[in-house]
Design goal:
Strand content: 15-25%
Shape: globular
Largest sheet: 5 strands, antiparallel
Radius of gyration: 16 Å
Structural class: alpha+beta
Length: 162
């Protein structure tokens, strides 16, 4: 929750200049001024794709506009088009890298819909495999991830369609 709230952590000492509360807004369209973007897979003009820091499955990507906007209907036409294009590209890249059996793709618009960071629209692209919900997730309350997020990011970035 400290990450979500933008509170001080080891990476951000209490005396450091405050960062925006929204973790998605810390990733800007300018890599020179962007922070918290080690997991960015690809940047577009109005939107970008980033690995989920807390993935449901390996390869869980989020596609979102740079602009802090909560509702899909408030996206500009350019943002809507780029979110859609990046979502298609994410599906292609993930298929190329890990051959999932299926996908969950979707938006949680509003807190009541399950959006933990509902103030900044983000579309989830979650690869799924038959049996990926097993006793570890159901009984153990944990997930096993076979590789580091940075490795996943590199694989997807290399496979990203141009």
């Amino acid at each position: 929750m400290a990450y979500v709230r933008g509170e001080a952590t080891e990476e951000q000492p209490a005396h450091a200049e405050p960062r925006p509360l929204c973790p998605f807004c810390r990733i800007t369209d300018d890599p020179a001024t962007s922070t918290d973007d080690d997991l960015v897979v690809v940047r577009g003009e109005t939107a970008y794709a980033v690995l989920n820091l807390y993935p449901y499955n390996p390869g869980h990507v989020m596609v979102l506009p740079y602009r802090h906007v909560a509702d899909y209907v408030d996206l500009t036409d350019a943002e809507t088009a780029e979110v859609a294009a990046l979502t298609k590209a994410a599906l292609r890249a993930i298929r190329s890298v890990s051959q999932p059996h299926a996908f969950n793709v979707g938006l949680n618009l509003g807190e009541a819909a399950g959006g933990s960071l509902s103030g900044h629209l983000h579309q989830h692209v979650v690869p799924r495999w038959s049996g990926d919900s097993n006793f570890m997730t159901v009984i153990g309350g944990t997930k096993t991830l076979p590789q580091l997020l940075e490795q996943t990011r590199d694989l997807l970035a290399d496979a990203w369609p141009t």
